[in-house]
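Ticket 4471: requesting a sanity check on a complex prediction with 1,2,3,4,5,6-hexahydroxy-cyclohexane. Repro inputs:
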Amino acid sequence: MGDLLGVAVLGAGHMGADHIRRLDGVVSGARVAAVADPDTDRAKEAVAGLDGVSVHTDPVSALAAPGVQAVLVASPGPAHEDALLAAFARGLPVLCEKPMVPDSTGALRVVEAEARLGRRLAQIGFMRRYDAEYRRLKSLLDDGGLGRPLMLHCTHRNVSSPPHFTSAMLINSSVSHEIDAARWLLGQELTAVTVLRPASSAGAPEGLIDPQFVLFETERGALVDVEVFVNCGFGYQVRCEAVCERGSARIGDEHTMVVTARGGAREEVAQDYLVRFADAYDREVQAWVDATRQGRVSGPSVWDGYAASVVAEAGVRALETGGRTTVELAPRPDLYAEVSR
Ligand SMILES: NC(=O)c1ccc[n+]([C@@H]2O[C@H](COP(=O)([O-])OP(=O)(O)OC[C@H]3O[C@@H](n4cnc5c(N)ncnc54)[C@H](O)[C@@H]3O)[C@@H](O)[C@H]2O)c1
Ligand SMILES: O[C@H]1[C@H](O)[C@@H](O)[C@H](O)[C@@H](O)[C@H]1O
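Returned structure tokens:
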């Protein structure tokens, strides 16, 4: 146990429990040392059968628990700022689920706190950067053979949304992934956003604006459109097509088992992000553990998390006003490269 990175997991819900399973049984080099969740039963259930894990209701006491050397934050977005600042205060490396901090003022406080430390401590959980298909698309675009990317057409569908989901969360929780992926794939900041509202689906909960059609502009004139539909009822579908000057490339078409029977063929469609992005989460957490054990920090940065929050906030304003909303980022501290790779 001594050589393994001791991780405190904050939040033992859907994502936290899956990360606990992953740290314990999938990735190498780490172990769960502590877990914190105000819901003690949930925390205990998530670590049932694991040895040497202390269970806490208070995240700060989990960070101070024996054997804790790093932190994985999987509590709801509004709790992330306190968790990140508490980890920074103890010099603990962090992997923080998206959205880093949903409100941009809080996100900027996290940027400033890490910049004051003068070294990176946090990796943000934009796991699509670790997905094999997204990585192939990124290499193709970087290679330049198709010419300059002009547009990205993105689809982001969930079978259903959790009960607490709001119209703003379609943008600041769901589309936060496309915001990060677009910045990363194109190597450009997003500069303006417009949100259109098709008639809401009868399958969406009362009052939820679902689906939405989000259009981003970038600093060098590309356009990124996103259909986000979180109560589509039929599958977890994430697609992205890059249209370039000399060709196009599309990822996310289902490549899965095709079952033929009774004169027809049926292709399975993932129902959940834990299935569609299983490999990406595994690679993301393994990369974090490896880098942390080597004293490095890699992957999406706190600046990427901040930029995503500012763009998403502009998107929520655009949804509310119906107008085109521009994005204003604070000056970027020297600690951060433009859009981290
Ligand atoms: N990367 C992805 O694809 C992905 C997928 C799902 C969720 N997420 C993110 O993971 C985070 C958690 O989402 P979820 O779906 O697991 O939510 P969830 O509601 O299932 O679980 C959250 C848990 O955190 C606990 N909690 C609340 N406040 C806390 C605090 N201050 N400290 C510690 N625990 C606290 C809750 O009791 C709950 O058990 C969110 O930021 C979400 O956006 C990311
Ligand atoms: O928190 C989840 C998660 O980030 C998923 O990857 C996304 O598809 C959902 O829309 C979002 O609600």
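Notes from triage: Residues 158, 173-174, 177, 230, 273 surround 1,2,3,4,5,6-hexahydroxy-cyclohexane (ligand 2) (CB under 6 Å). Leaving this open until the requester confirms.
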